[in-house]
From TrEMBL:
Pfam families found in the cross-reference section: Mem_trans
Protein's name in the database: AEC family transporter
One GO biological process term: transmembrane transport
GO cellular component: plasma membrane
Record bears the keyword Secreted: no
Lineage of the organism: Bacteria, Bacillati, Actinomycetota, Actinomycetes, Kitasatosporales
Main location: membrane
Membrane topology type: Multi-pass membrane protein
Organism: Streptomyces inhibens
Residue spans crossing the bilayer: 65-84, 105-124, 130-150, 162-180, 192-211, 232-260, 280-303
């Protein structure tokens, strides 16, 4: 289990480091990185979410119990994080980064570990996890950005953000195709798959490019807060919710796995596009990725026991 986690996380760490090096040596123009972030947010990430949700194989899985466990635990923890916001003494845009670091997850790592643990059944269970958490997290994050981001929005602005957000639209499209049992056209599916596969490396390179270690001292408290929620509170809440609905051992382990994953590259992309603290978000993402090498196996070992 530890070897699987390290194997899944090492490429993530290396791509972040490569992005940091490229920004300071070869590709120094800010314009390139800002346009790469726009490409990820508007094209690559939506393609990833649409393809993965539309093509998920959910036969013979406890879909309702698993989805209910994940949605309930995510919403409960999100409410707690918002409730304790005044105690964090953060600027509003800084809080959006802590919030994303608390609830978002790197589904690439999750699918890799789930496949290593349980093979094709693990991949199918991971697909249900994505279908449940991805839309939930994106709606919650858009609402938090609308309230605490640098561009404050009224009710009409919040509704507009929700109905036009490319990540939420992609999730809705993928779930609709799954619910109607419709397949993507033969030519469209491989194109979406290829675009989605490009989202992870490009997003991680952008995170590395955005790292600013000169302000790292101010990151300590936000990183500690978001990482405590991500690696302790979130998996604990998921475990309790799973126990309440009687979720089976394999589904329970994968559910807790996904809720204990370090935050994803999409967190940084969303922070840049919706008015969050992008450098802090990059720092949280990079730090949680490193911490995850130890934290994720520990959480899985505790749940398995």
């Amino acid at each position: 289990m530890i070897a699987l986690t390290v194997k899944a996380l090492i490429p993530v760490v290396l791509l972040i480091a490569l992005g940091y090096a490229l920004k300071r040596s070869m590709i120094t123009a800010e314009g390139f990185w800002s346009e790469a972030e726009r490409l990820s947010y508007h094209v690559l990430l939506p393609a990833l979410f649409l393809h993965s949700l539309a093509t998920a194989d959910t036969d013979d899985l406890p879909v309702r119990a698993l989805a209910g466990t994940l949605v309930a635990s995510t919403v409960a923890v999100a409410v707690l994080v918002i409730a304790f916001r005044p105690m964090m003494r953060l600027k509003h845009d800084g809080f959006t980064s802590v919030f994303q670091g608390s609830v978002r997850f790197n589904n690439y790592i999750g699918v890799t570990i789930a496949a290593g643990l349980y093979g094709t059944q693990g991949v199918a269970t991971a697909a249900v996890c994505n279908a449940a958490i991805v839309p939930t997290v994106n709606v919650l994050c858009v609402l938090v950005f609308a309230r605490f981001g640098s561009a404050r929005l009224r009710l009409t602005g919040i509704v507009k953000q929700l109905v036009t957000n490319p990540l939420i639209l992609a999730c809705a499209g993928g779930i609709l195709l799954q619910a109607l049992d419709l397949r993507l056209p033969p030519g469209i599916e491989p194109a979406l798959q290829a675009l989605g596969a490009a989202s992870m490396p490009l997003g991680l390179l952008c995170i590395g490019a955005a790292l600013r270690f000169g302000t790292a001292r101010s990151w300590a408290a936000p990183i500690l807060t978001s990482s405590s929620v991500k690696f302790a509170l979130m998996p604990a809440a998921t475990f309790l919710a799973a126990q309440m609905v009687g979720l089976g051992s394999q589904a329970l382990i994968i559910a807790v796995l996904f809720q204990a994953l370090p935050t994803a590259s999409s967190s940084y992309i969303m922070a840049r596009q919706l008015g969050g603290d992008a450098p802090l978000m990059a720092g949280i993402t990079a730090t949680q990725t490193l911490l995850g090498i130890a934290a994720v196996p520990l959480v899985l070992a505790l749940v398995s026991a």
